[in-house]
Each structure stands twice: as structure tokens, then as C-alpha cells.
Amino acid sequence: MLILNCPNCGERNVSEFRNGGEYRPRPACPREKDDLQWAEYVYLRSNVSGVQKEWWYHRAGCGLWFLAERHTKTNEITATYRWRPAAASSEEERKADG
Amino acid sequence: MAERLPPRTGEVIDREEELRFQFDGEDYLAFSGDTIASALAATGVRVFSRSFKYHRPRGLLCCAGHCPNCLVQVGEEPNVRACRRRVEAGMRVEPQNVTPTLKRDWLAPVMRALSPFMSVGFYYKTLYRPSWVWKLGEPLLRAATGLGKVSVPKIPSEGFDKQYLRGDVVVVGAGPAGMSATLSAAGQGASVLLLDENGQLGGHLRTTGDTQQRLPSLLEKVRAAGNIRVFTETTVTGWFDHSWLAAVRGHRLYKIRAGAVVLASGALERPLLFENNDLPGVMLGSAAQRLLRLHSVKPGQRAVVMTANDDGWEVAADLRAAGVEVVAMADERERAASSSARVDALSADVPVFWRHTVAAAHGGSAVQAATIVPLDGDGDTQAPRHRQDCDLLLVSVGWTPNTGLAYQAGVRFGFDEKRAELTARDMPENFAIAGRAAGTHLLEHELAEGALAGRSMAAAAGRGDAPAAAQWTQVQEEKAAEPARSAPWVSVAGAGKRFLCYCEDVTEKDLYTAVAEGYDSIELLKRYSTISMGPCQGKMCSMNAVHLCARANAASVDETGSTKSRPPLQPISLGALAGQNMEPVRVTPVHDWHLERGAKMMVAGLWLRPERYGDPAGEVRAVRERVGVIDVSTLGKYKLTGPSVPDILEKIYINRWRKLAVGRVRYGAMCNTEGIVMDDGVTARVGEQEWYMTTTSGGAGSVNEWMQWWMQSGWGEGVQLLNRTDDFAAVNLAGPQARALLQKLTGLQLGNDQFPYMHARSGAVAGVPCRLLRIGFTGELSYELHCPSSYGRHLWERLLAAGEQFGILPFGVEAQRVLRLEKGHLIIGQDTDALSNPIAAELSWAVKLDKEDFLGQRSLIRVTERGVRQRLVGFTVPGVSVAPEEGLQIVALGSNGKRPEIIGWVSSCRFSPTLNEVIGLCWLPSEIAETDGAEFNIWRDERPLAARVHHGAVYDPEGARLRS
Amino acid sequence: MSMKLVRQALRGERPPPRMWRAHELRERYDAVIIGGGAHGLCCAYYLAEEHGITDVAVLEKRYIGAGGSGRNTAIVRSNYLTPEGVRFYDASLKLYERMAGELDINVMLSQRGHLTLAHNDGSLRTMRRRAEVNRLQGVESRVIFPEEIERLCPHLDVSDHPRYPILGALYHPRGGIMRHDAVVWGYAHQADARGVHIHQLTEVTGIAVEGWRVTGVETNRGNIKTGTVLNATAGWCSTTAAMAGVKLPVTTSPLQACVSEPLKPFLDVVIVSGSLHVYVSQSDRGELVMGASVDPFPSYSSRGSLSFAESLAGHIVELMPALQHVRLMRQWAGLCDMTPDYSPIMGFTPVEGFYVDVGWGTYGFKASPISGKMLAECIATQRTPDLIAPFRLSRFSEFDLVGEKGAASVAN
Ligand SMILES: Cc1cc2nc3c(=O)[nH]c(=O)nc-3n(C[C@H](O)[C@H](O)[C@H](O)COP(=O)(O)OP(=O)(O)OC[C@H]3O[C@@H](n4cnc5c(N)ncnc54)[C@H](O)[C@@H]3O)c2cc1C
Ligand code: FES
Ligand code: FES
Ligand SMILES: [Zn+2]
After folding, report:
1. Which subunits count as partners of chain C given 3+ CB pairs below 8 Å?
2. Beta carbons of A5 and A66 less than 8 angstroms apart
3. Which of B215, B866, C31, C177 is deepest in the core (most CB within 10 A)?
4. CA-CA-CA-CA torsion for B76, B82, B86, B92, nearest 10 degrees?
């Protein structure tokens, strides 16, 4: 049983959490995307075998949605943190949009 | 009890208490503390079971729970290891895989005759041409398979349970290394859990060496320490991510979070391959020592001891001390590793064959003789041969460390060809191995290594300091100087069957055949030959198989690789894994009332809801003609507050919210990003900045998570979302008399002008603070009352009492389904599936594509551009009274004899008692669905049934009654 | 007695014929198939057998059958929910029915009947829908009720005591189980006999693409030139596709399964419960083969978990209380390539010469023969066969998904 470190509650068994899949910022203006770009956002996944930035929800706990960096091969979790509308994510958003 | 010795120190039996039990239909006596195996062995029973494939007789091999040879049926419990299970009075023990009895098994000679044709993987090569042969052959093959029985189809569940444990250091195995590790970790202030599968602490200190020398003081210290918890008869079955361990003791499963783990689980003695090496009476040396020292049972009268290390000599000495005659010793070595008094003494009385090995065991159902042959340099044998009569053939030729748990923890092993031993590498920082599990056999070394391991693991768990690296180096060096204990070869050439895998009856020859056929890697070999796939999970054969596979491929053991260790390390009962049934059941505050009234309850997600109280048609009529009430406490209920609530609602729902006035209610539906309908419900604006939102019962949890997700990643500014689902009970009062009834219980103004349709009010009803929503899923004048859960039943009862004069009836889910269907309302999840978008599901009126942005919008824009192929639409089936079943298909009839083609399906269908007609909702191609009155065919009982598209509600299409 | 066994018995010490051979890696092949599972090997077999394309290499990073093909629970059936699904899987089942003779190996197809239990009215409705779709496609399948269920499987508790009582079941007599490894070996053997090179311990590390066209693959044993590459790497398909610059609508999740110790035969049908997320059958070795739904989060780790075994056991014992004393003997996991619509992805990709046969999730074993056959046809004829057109990759950008999700809570 993995241990996940909730930024609010600390270390808890992973069974308390729900995984929300890889972190993919929603395009700021979906209407401006053409069908292909939109389908890409909706359906395609990187599905990396390596470190993945992903969402977790503390379902049986505080109800926080937070981000984790997990190696998908070893399940080693190197970081967990709250989502922030920080520069870092807008940088990624631009990449995801492009 | 012919083979029982007089009382001895160290024995674990209580001779004061005799227990009677049955084996194979006969009565036997045991002492308290006996295992089934020791009790039977004490009376001279040799054959315990028959083998999986050839039905060969099998007897005790390991006496440690690590082989398949003593599996028996105990009552309803199959595959019990007789050498581990203690006898209980009245126990009914049966041998397994016998047709029909252990002694007279007619399949055994048949299998012997067939065995030339039953080489490895034979079943892949036969019984399939022509194809019908398999239809006959499979049942035969199948009937012969399996071991224990599940005979009685229904048995009551026994009390299994679970417990969580936590320890800074968990020590697995309570032999000298484990106890030493425990003491040193505890000495550092760590909380230690010490687990052992045996009934007593001590490990091999109880079965080898001078037991009195060290054991008492170790036991005393363990007992004295305050921070050590001891669990005997507790088998660790697996290591999982982040040092999460599983262990079982009887009917209890322990789930243990360990800070660090010391594996001190000892070693398994390794079988040797020679002709007839599976005959009862061929036993591992350590097995004989267990019988002798723990249970005071003589394993035989005349023993040949075959060894490759000093352990075999100790076995021989033990036998002699117990009065067993040792008729010959064979040692694969040139001479003993250390000359000792023991070797000298034995050599004086017993013929000793140095540099010899055993090439064959002889006998029918038990050993009668052994052939001893000289060895040449490579482990091959040569004449002359020496035949020695005996009834016991003990084998002590090496050890395989018991390291399954380490594999699971990510430790990798390399093979030291010189010492013929596995050595660990890539050790995780909170995992250590000590003692025989680490290849350390001399007691002083084991104790030293255990102490180091304990201290290191305490440090890894944050207690005390780690020992200096130099100390480890010293232990390693000392260990390396120990004499090697394992022979470099694992099999002795010869004719006849030499069993590699006892569980699966796979011989050495089978292995070579499989390799030659192309199954030449250890993984393919395993899968094809089934080596290591049996009840012992390779404990007896895996290592030997790797050796032989390496030899067959002329490769090294390291190149060949070992197969992985998969949990569980010891088979574990489904009952223990299951524990008590902890499935939650959710019930509403009115639940008990429903039961008292004899409601038929139905499962709805985690909830139980009344499906009906009596006749659903009567319940429908009550609502249509008078008044009815339904418990809808299962709805999802949310409070949203803050200035930006309209913003989040606009994003989450497909329809508009911004302009909803205070006091008003609106229906809303929501989509995921794909544009698939997720949920629906009504939401009321109850204050300038306060909203009350409801969702479907099934969607309550997921909608909450969904909204939280978006709110917590950028859309949550100025909104608070609070899940009130459990805080409120809700009942829906519906029917033309609803107002009159409600007015009896409240001072609120209920007139159509004061409290119109799709409005919300707050006020006391029957003295209970309520939120009232005037909505109408049923199509009648109706009020949904939400009140604090604790008042739910009170409110419900008062409504029913007050309604008596109006002829009120409670109604269930079934009546509600009919009522909504008469109104043409869809149920998400029933009338929609994972591909339904709101435009196709007749919710286009709610889809506001011109809104700024909402979830699903971009996908729905595409849907509108391309159009939808299928639509959800209402229908009627004229002229029938039995509703076609939901799930039936709608077809286009094929021309002459061609199969009808599926074009749609029926998602809801009921007989409407109000309209006296069968009505429903279905999915149809858009071109048909668009025409009101269009005819189509439902395929029922291999025949078409004509139905007609019906647009709009069949009941009160104008909605006058709702608004009345 | 088969002649093969007689010959083998008489042969004595002489080695039996090899099933497949090892080869040097050539510099070029007409076609390269990545992934030595049932799908990849089957496609190789059909390329050679039906289209005369024999200059084919199957590259497998470990040993053949190392992936899902050697780890699945071997349930075969064709009672799907959508007409396109039923058609496709039924074509596969028909190939399975004649496979043993065709591949000259007993794949031990055991059509012992398949029961999908319904514990609430919603799933009962879905069962009815499936039964109707199946029957209209000529596939035998019907909804049955507790009395008949108990007759087929006396060990099931059909009373109303369980937390989720059994209300009914979808009964599919032709569904059953088989021996998965034999399928892999059979295809490997026959492909090898037709000239296909099977390279084990050969890992593809890169795919060469020039101007949207495949030109070769790189492996740990050297590079290969080829204009045709099939990605049949299931759980690893995203990483393989990424080498060619193609992104897929796939996530990889472990699926676990386990077996009990061997028992005398007592369970004659395959039991699946979607609501309880478990299924169980008894193999010809006497072991109960049990499984559940995919792990709760995506991962490439095939380390099993205790929670899997606990919840599986809980549900099995609730379904069949008599199994409480049966012991779980071994558990394992395999990787599943999950798609948004619980349907596979087969055929062309935006990169010319790069084909996919992926998205097999938890249900792809039963489709091995037909998908191998269809992919071979697609590669050989350069046209998408009708049978697999609904499963094309472009359905996602066309928002034209397959509707199997509704039936897929435990979709083996
Ligand atoms: C526990 C479990 C139970 C299942 N039960 C069922 C069931 O009952 N019924 C059913 O129909 N389906 C079932 N499935 C699903 C089924 O096993 C798979 O869908 C199917 O086996 C996929 O076959 P494949 O040949 O496409 O892939 P695989 O058999 O997974 O083969 C892919 C191969 O590609 C290799 N590979 C990966 N990357 C590379 C690379 N870079 N270079 C070279 N080789 C590479 C891998 O080593 C692997 O051998 C189950 C799956 C699991 C895990
Ligand atoms: S003798 Fe009992 S398990 Fe080996
Ligand atoms: S001896 Fe038990 S699996 Fe081989
Ligand atoms: Zn938390």
C-alpha cells in the first residue's frame, strides 16, 4: 500500500485517495481550438513510463485536489503540492495549447 | 504409538492430554501439541497423499510447511499442510487426490502405465484432432485434476477478521538472528514486532545444535523488553509497496506498516534429484530433526544419511541418539569441513562413503533401499554401486535462503558460483537480511549479523544510530569464511523418474525436453512445464530448476536468472483475506419506517430504497388522483455560497444561471469535457449569495469531486461548496391534494401566487425547519421538502398522518419511474449511457451553446455541427398491455430471411395505469425520431412489435397540473 | 493417444522438434512487428499464411507471451454490447473454435458457459440489452434468474442475504476459458514454420520516421530497415507509439489476477460480477482463476497489491461462502492499455507504414486471432477491413466512439 503525502493532512494510505489522471491544463479558450486540437485535449494522453505530474483527490480525508509527481514504473512519489495558478502552470498551459 | 520416543527436553507435546482424531476413516491418537503429521508419523504412517499427476505415494519431505507432500483435507478445508496444523480433538482428516483411497488408488497404476505418454506438456499435444475428441477428453482430464475438495456448496461463514499493526522495525523470523535483531533494535528504542510462523520462538535453535545453550537467555531477554511484541504462529505472506506487510495467524489477517524490515526467515533445505527421490521415507535432514526434537517421533528405524555438509552429520548423530540405526553415511565431499568428535564417533560405527552420493531410492510405497555411488569431479557418477537396505533416506545437501519477501521488497540476488549460494544486492535502505536467510549458518555469526541488522533497521526507522560500515564488513568476512554448505550440483545422473518439481510431478528429463522444444528461458520453461507453479510455489524446485536450466543452456545461473517471487509466500485463505464484510450500506432517516410498512427494498448504489410498498399502479393512481409521498433523501444536496456561485454554475451546467432570481428553482444538466451527460438536478437560489443544489442519488459523490476539482484548480474564487447530502432528509409530496395537505402543517403561504411552480421557500412544516422546492418530476403539483436528517422520520410521519383524510399513499421508486415516464422525463444512467450527449438525449433546450464557456461546450459545438445520428425519444405501443422489457432492440426488418438490423433500443418502458397504454423512451435514428407518430419495430420474442414515436409528455403535455 | 505423444515416447533420449528457432537479426525485413504477444505473433502468422508476406520479424523485448498474453485469465466470449463489438468478437471466437487443429496445439478451449451476474436493476437492464443485441447477431445469450443460476453453479449464494443479492445473470453458453500460453506458442510455432523470425530479448528502442513515413526500427541488437511496423505492445503501446511521434488515447493500468491452490473440479461455469468487480473460473488444472477490475491508478508497475487480494476475496466469499477455506496461491499483475471507450484501436495511424493493434485493455486476449488476421489484411491490402473500421484511430478526432463502456465494469 503506497503512502501519499496530502499537503493538508500528511502521509496517508493511498486507499484514501482517488487518482485524477495526468495533469493537463484545460485550454483557456476551447472555442478557439479546431476539432483536431480539441480531440487531442479530450482524448490523447502522454501516458509516460517515467515521472508523471498528476492529480489526486483526498476523498476519505480533507477533500483537497492536489498534484503529485510519481514515477509510473516504480510508483515512487517524489513530490506532492497544491495546485497554484502560478507562472509554472501557465508556461505548461502554453505548451499544451501550442 | 510405535515410533514415539520417551519424553525429551525441548519437545512441544503435552503427553498428559491425548486427542482422538480421524485420518482416512480410521481413528488415531495424538498428544496435545502434535501436528497431524507428527501424530501420524508416530504411529508409523508413511504415505500422506498422492501426487498431482501420476498419483504416486508421497510422504513427509520437509516437515516445515514448504512442500506439497503432506497436503490433506481437514473437514471442509482443503489443502491443509499436515506438518503445520495442530491436531484438534475430533478432527476429520482425509488424504487428497486418491481414487478412491490412499492405500488402494486405481489411478496410480493407470498413470504409471500411461506415464511414457505423459511427458512434459503432453496435454498440448493430444486430444484435439478431430475437434470433438476434446469434448470427450477434457472432462476426463479435468476429473483427474485438482487436490482438495470444496464439497458442500453452502457453508456458514466463520469468523475471520483483520487487524492493523505498526512497528518501527518488523522482524520476520524468530530464530537466533531474528531474536538478536529484535533485541538490538529494541535496544535502540525502536518498537519491534517479532513474527514467526512456528508456535514457539527459537527457530532452528529448537531443532539443531545444543538447544539449551543459547535459547533460554534469548527468550528471557525478548520477554523482558517492553517495546517488543511477539506474534507466534503468524506467517508473513507478502511485502507490498512502502513496507506494507501481510501476515496471517489462524483466521486473522494482519496488515502491518513497517518502518523497516529485518528478514530472518531462515533457509529451506534443498532436495536432491535422484531416481525415486519422491518415495515416502526420503526426507530432508532438517525434517527428521523436527520430528525428533519437537515431537519426539522417530522418523524410521534404519537410516541412510546423504549429505554434503556438516549438517548431515548432526542429523545422523541425532538419529543415533534417538535410537535410530544409521546404516550408512554418504558425503559428497572429500572429507568433513571441520574434523569433529561427531564425525569421528560416527565413522567408528557406521560405514561412511566419502565422495559418494545417492543415485536411487528403491521401494514400492516407501523406501526399502538406497543405491550409493561414487562421484567424479563434475558431479557425475560412476560405478561401482552400493545398495544399502534402509527405511529412511535423509538428504542434507544444501540450503536455499528463504528470501521470497526480499524479492518482493526489490532486493536482487546474484549467484556465487564458488559457494553455490545466492548473495543479495540492491538492498533497499529499510530492509535487511540476517542469519540463514542471508546465507549465514554459524550461530555466533548469525547472532552478530542479526544484531547489526536490527540496529541498522532501527536507525533506518529513525531510532538510534546506524552501526559503522566496518562492522558490516567484518560480519561479511566472517560469513565468507564459513564452510560452504551447498553442493554445486543438484541432481545425480541415473535412470527412472527423478523429480524436480514435486507439486507438479515434473522430472529432470521433462525439463530437458522442454528446453529442447524451445522453452529455453526460465520463464517459458516454467509456463510450459509448470515447474514452480504448484502449492509450494517453487520453494522446493525453483532453485534447482534454475540450476538445471542453466546446465541445459550451458549458461551460468546468473544468466539464467531466477523467477520472481510473487505474493503470497504461503497460500492464504480467502476467508482471512476477506475478513468481515465491511461493505457500507446507506439508509435514509425514514428507513426503519419503510421496513415497518413492509416496503420491498431495492439496492440503489450504496443505498437501500423502497421499490414499492404495495401495488405500484395503486401508488401511481394515488399521486395522480389524490396525493402521495416519496422518500428522496438519497438525492445529492449541496450548499453553495459566495458572490461567484453563478460563475461556477455557468461553467458546470450546460444551461444558464446568472439571471436566476432569489427564490427561484431551475433544472440543470451537466456534461463532462467530452460532452457526455453526467448528471442533472434542480438548483434553487435561496439568497443573494446562497444556492441550494441537488443532484441524482447516484451522482452525489462524483459531482462533488468533479466540482471540487474545477473549483480547486482555478474556478473556485468566491465560492464555497458544502456537501449536505447526509445532513438533510428529503421527501417529495405530490398530487392534486398536496397543497391542501401541506397547508395543514405549515403557516407558509402556499397559494399559487405566493409560492408558484419552480420556486423555493423556507419555513416550518410540522414544526420542522424545512426548505421547500416546488418542482414536479412526477408531473403533479408537488413540493419537495428538505429538512435536517434527524427530523426526517418525524416529518414523514406527520405528512402521512395529515394526509390520511386525503387518501395519501407512500410511493416507491417503481411508481416514480412510471410517473416520470408519463411525463417523458429521462433518467440519467438509464436512458443515457456513456456516449449520450444532451443534444441527442432531448435536452437541447437546456444546452446554451452561446454561453461564454462551460464544460462540454466545445464538444457539443462539434456535435451540433455534425448532427446526431440517434436520438432519445418517447414512444407508445398501441394495443398491448404488457410492456416490452427495457433493453429490447429496435430493428429494421431484413428482407426475406435476412437478420433484422439493429437501429435502436428501448431504454425505459412501462404500462401506464393513468393512460392505459404502454409508453416508453427509446433511442432511434434521428430521421425516425424526428417525426411524431412515426412507426418502428421493437424486436420482442423473435418477432417485431409495432410502436410509435411520441413527442412530448403523454400525460398533461402542457404541464397545467404542475402549475395548478 | 495422439501420434505426437507416441512418437515422443518412442523417441527416448532424442530431443523433440523445436517449436521455434533463434535467428540472427537481419538488416532489413518487409515488416516488423513489435511485441511478441498473441496479437503480434498472430498477425505474423496471418501475414505469412494468407498474404505470402514471410519476411517478417517479431521483436519481443523479453520472451514471447511475457505481456498480457501470458498473464490473462483467458476468458473468451462474444456477448458484447454493441453490434460492431459482437460481430468482431464472435468472428474471433469462431477462429478460436478451430484453432487447435489449425495451429496443431491443444489450446484447451473450454466453452463451459459464462455468467455475468446482475445485482441491481440497472445491470439487469444492461444484461437484457446485451442478450438482445447478441441474439440479433446470432450469438446465443440470454438473461436467466436465480433458480437457473443456482442450478448452473450451486455454490453461489442466490438468497437475499448478501449485501448485493443476485437478481439475474446474462448466460452465454459459448463463453469459456482456454490456455493462453498455448495460443502464443501455437502462433509462434506456425509463424516460425512459415519463415517468420521471432526475436526474443530484442527490445525496440526507437522508430525511424522520415517525413511521416516509417523507415526502420532501432533495437538493443541493432537497427532494422523496414517500411512497415506494427505496434502490438499493449501495455507499453504509448511508449512505442511515442517513438514514431504518435500520441494515443491510452492510459496504462495494472490489472491483477490470482489463482487458488488446485481443487477437485466443482465450478463448471465462468462467473463474472460487474458490480462486485470480480470473476472466477476453474481451470483444467483445478485452480480457481480469479480477477478483478484494473488497479485504482495508472502505472507501469506490475507489483501486486494486498488490497486487490482483500477486496477480491471479500467479494468471492460473499458470492460463494463455501470458498472461505480455499487458499489463494499466487497473484500477479499485467499491464493494460485502457482506452476511453473500452474498445481497441486497430489499423492506420497518421504515420505511413506505422500500424497499431492496441487499446486491448482488459479484454484483448479473446480478440487475438481476429485482430491478427485483420491487421495482416490491413497491412497486406492497404485497406481497413470493414470488421475493424469502427475501431480505427481516427474515431477519436471524429468524436465517433464505440459504445462498449456501458458493459465494461469488469470487462474480460
Ligand atoms: C491479469 C489480466 C487478465 C486478463 N484477462 C483477460 C481475459 O480474461 N480475457 C481477455 O480477453 N483478455 C484479458 N486480458 C487482456 C489481455 O491479456 C490483453 O489484452 C492481451 O493479452 C494483449 O495481447 P497483446 O499481444 O496485444 O499484448 P501483450 O501480450 O501484452 O504483448 C505485448 C508484448 O510487447 C512486448 N514489448 C513491449 N514493449 C516492447 C518494445 N519496446 N520492444 C519489444 N517488445 C516490446 C512486451 O514484452 C509484450 O510481450 C487480461 C489482462 C491481464 C493483465
Ligand atoms: S512435509 Fe508438510 S509441507 Fe513438507
Ligand atoms: S515443488 Fe512445489 S512447485 Fe515445484
Ligand atoms: Zn488531506
Report:
1. A, B
2. no
3. C31
4. 40
Percent share of chain B, pLDDT over 90? 83
Tell me phi and psi for residue C408, to 5 degrees: -110, 30
Residue of B nearest to C182 (CA): B124
Ligand 3 centroid to residue B566 C-alpha, Å:
14
- Give pLDDT tens digits for C160-179: 989 999 999 999 999 999 99
Report the pLDDT averaged over residues B902-916: 96
The total number of structural domains in chain B stands at 7
Instruction: Give the per-residue pLDDT at B489.
Output: 83
Residues 6 or more apart whose Cβ sits within 8 Å of residue A87: none
Mean pLDDT of C365-374: 98
Do residues B284 and B259 share a domain? no
Mutate to test the interface with C, among B532, B574, B941 (most CBs of C within 10 A): B574
What's the first-to-final CA gap in chain A, in angstroms? 38
- What pLDDT does A96 receive? 44
Spell out the domains of chain C, with CATH numbers in brackets. 27-73+180-249+341-408 (3.50.50.60), 110-176+251-338 (3.30.9.10)
Average pLDDT score, chain B: 94
Does residue B263 belong to any structural domain of this protein? yes
At B868-904, the pLDDT tens digits run: 999 999 999 999 999 999 999 999 997 777 889 999 9
Rounded to a whole number of angstroms, the distance from the CA of A82 to the nearest CA of chain B is: 9
Which residues line the pocket of ligand 3, CB cutoff 6 A?
B 68, 501-504, 531-532, 534, 536-538, 540-541
Question: Looking at the structure, do residues B845 and B810 belong to the same domain, yes or no?
Answer: no
Do A1 and B244 count as a contact with CB atoms less than 8 A apart? Answer: yes
Question: Does residue B551 sit in the same domain as residue B626?
Answer: no
Chains with ≥3 Cβ pairs under 8 A against A? Answer: B, C
Residue of C122, C304, C325 lying closest to B78 (CB–CB): C325
Examine the predicted complex and report whether its ipTM is higher than 0.90: yes
User: Where does A3-97 sit in CATH, by number?
Assistant: 3.30.2270.10
Residues B362, B230, single domain; the answer is: no
Query: Which of residues B156, B189, B217 is at a domain's end?
Result: B156
Side chain identity at residue B177, one-letter code: A
User: Is 0.90 topped by the overall pTM?
Assistant: yes
Kindly determine whether residue C247 and residue A40, on different chains, have CB atoms separated by under 8 Å. Answer: yes
What pairing do the DSSP bridges indicate for beta strands B356-362 and B369-374?
A: antiparallel
Query: Is residue C68 in contact with ligand 1, taking CB distance under 6 Å?
Result: yes
Answer whether residue B620 is part of any domain.
Answer: yes
Residue B318 maps to which CATH number? 3.50.50.60
B14 shares its domain with B98: yes
Chain C residue with minimal CA distance to B237?
C306
Q: Which among B51, B67, B294 is the best mutation to test ligand 2's pocket, defined by most ligand atoms within 8 Å of the CB?
A: B67
Task: Say whether pLDDT at B626 is over 50.
Answer: yes
**How would you classify the pairing of strands B399-401 and B267-269?**
antiparallel
Q: Which domain holds residue B962?
A: 869-964
Q: Ligand 1: does its nearest atom lie under 6 Å from the Cβ of C252?
A: no
> B255 with B296, same domain?
no
User: Kindly report the CA angle at C272 between C271 and C275, in degrees rounded to 5?
Assistant: 140
Q: Are residues B358 and B421 in the same domain?
A: no
CATH number at residue B65: 3.10.20.440
Dist CA B436 CA B451 (whole Å): 14
- Averaged pLDDT for residues C281-300: 96
CATH number of the domain residue B674 falls in? 3.30.70.1400
* Length of chain A (residues): 98
Is the CB of C151 inside 8 Å of chain B's CB atoms?
A: no
- pLDDT value, residue B17: 97
Q: How far is CA C133 from CA A87, B902, C91, C175, in A?
A: 52, 8, 15, 16
